[in-house]
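Q: Convert this sequence to structure tokens.
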Amino acid sequence: MFGNGRFFRKSLITVLIIASLPGLFIGIAIYFVGSHQISEELNTIHQQQLLQAQKSIDNQLSTLEVSLSHWAFDPQFDEKLRRLDTEFGYSQVQDIYKTLLVMKELNPLIQQVSLYLEEPKPLLFTENGYERLGQSDYPKYHQLLDQPTSTQWIHYSSSLQSDKRALTEHLSLLHKIPGGSPRPFGVFLVSVDPVVLDNMITLLTPRGEGTSFLVKKNGEWLSPAARSGQVRDLDEALRAKVMEQGEARAPFVYTWEGELYSVSYGIFSRLNQEWIYVSATPLQSLTAPVVFISRLILAISSFGLLLAAILSWFASKQLYSPIKKLVQLYSSRGNQRMEGRDEFELIESVWNHVTRESQNLQSLLERQLPQVREGFLLQLLQGYLTHLSESDLQERIENLGFGVKESRFSVIFIQLLGFSNLQGRFFEGDEVLVTFAASNIVKELAENAMQKAEAINFHDLTVGLLICSPPAEPISQWKARVVELLKEITVRLNTLLHVRVVIGFGAPAPMLSDIPDILEATRQAIRFRDVREDNQIFDLEELVHNIDKPLVYPFQLEREVVQAVRMGSEEEAIQAVQRFLDELRAHAAKELWVQQGMLHLLGSVQNAMMHIGTNLHELYEGLNLYEQLCQLKEPEAIGKWFQVRVLSPFMQDIRRKQDLLMHKLVERVIFTIQERYMDDISLDAIAESHRLSSYTLSRTFKLMTGINFIDYLTEVRLEKAKELLRDTDWKLHEVAERVGYQPSYFGRIFKKNVGVTPNRYRESMKENKPII
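A:
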């Protein structure tokens, strides 16, 4: 009957048009236009995949370079290695073994890590041991110190200590030590695993087809030919073509043995060297999806026309289904009939009828106003209405028939005790029934004694009582009336329900928004009850004065703890926490207060950590510190836990971040000295350029390099002066000015540090006599 309605027929036709025509147009457009676009998109995706693979390789090589530079500047490999005693310095030698092993394990690219020391005697360290170099091996390793830069990539032939077979040439990264020193005496040598490097280069061919390789800018092979010693004809042809392209770097199509290849290449910048990566992928593998998709589009478009008609009919039935159900439902009520009307006209008619019934229900709801008022007051007391303003609260409670104009508000909290002793009268699960009875008793007594009073049933053996009193009534008079009422409530509940009662109340407040806080304070007050007494009435004001040892929270000591955390001073933070804990123990006789004070301190400390930028979830591995602290009972255990579980992980994280920043800072300062040693530079000027105090820069520089700033600057200048005295005929005043000294001062500082005058040094160098 209803399936043939006018709305159904119109919707079916509309859906059929919407589903069929756009699909047909889109299919034609995709076939004639989309194929080319898909081809372009596939090529773009191919280039993006190639770029991502190139970035991945570049990042791994950069990581290897940065890691090696970090170790080169490590204090473990500073000037003290010149005095290494391999016979008696067992601990230092073991530390070197362990460090080399750690360096090897940190990066999968590394095949072997070696440390060559020329002083105090030629030694070669690996992660497996060390060996003294003989006359035949010494030149091969000595030449590493003659490299023009402190860090660079080289092809180097080496043999492992455990394998004395024929030498194999590897791509290696070297770094002189100590890092940044003008007189290096050792070299870190990291050999790259050729298999891992080849696998990385293979990633440049995303689909696993075609070829990829890595060469230097001069055409020298890096991978894979450098390892295998064999070069495929395709690779050789591509290398020649790329060399012809020069700086163009644009992708091109290359024909080899009748097959077209899409060739892309780019440049890695590696420590003043440029490496060229080349990737060639058969065009057939890129265009095959386009051909298949084009044919598939034709088939899908044809099938889509047929499917659109079927789905249109099905969709119309599904969309009309809820409307049909509504029409059937409404037609069965009130003898409604379609009678040529549209379905929505019928729905509108029934909706008007439902609206009238809703209005009748609203009238019925108003008669249930007392229950609604009690629900509102329950939400108010429990703090669910804090988002409302004071005026909104008063307006709503006035609308519920509870006049509060020009009134003060007080909340009384009543706790029923001894329910478990009511054997024979009530059973387990009757708590709601007992609370309901007590609420009715309290309400009846309060309405007789007070002008405005409302009892609130919390359904958990607790009852709240909201009392309104005129503001002009003296507090003493009001309190006397309240105490008299509470005594009567106590007697009635004892007599009728045979339960013991604990009641708390405080001074009235002028605003409704204060009620949740008053209730919470009253709840907390009854926690100080004496369990030996049956019935008790607590006045919050009197309770504050009667507590033997009130909780005194040491806010000043909390600020000291937070400040020590912000400064990153672990020792000061531990001491401040201990003083804070001692202060709590001295003024809080109860274990609960000590625990609450430490919980508050934990929140303040974590808040300070988050302001610094610390990720607490990552730092503490998702642990719930509050839950752990709540499990501790003894103050000594709390103090130790706070030190080990809260402060130590944070301080270690801070030190790790500071060490990284200090390394970067010192590297920049060393670079500045190397570049500007001939200028009139000073500690203050360098510190100001890096926005630091001179004291901070001096302390950081000494800590990271083991030498004072001015001593390092003097050492660089004198090394340059020695070079000029040896290799040039410049006059002394010209040499002095070239290295940043006044001529009169140059002679004195040179003799003080070198032991001879500049002229004597020059003469000795010309006579090939060493300066002792």
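Confidence is low (pLDDT under 50) at residues 160-167.
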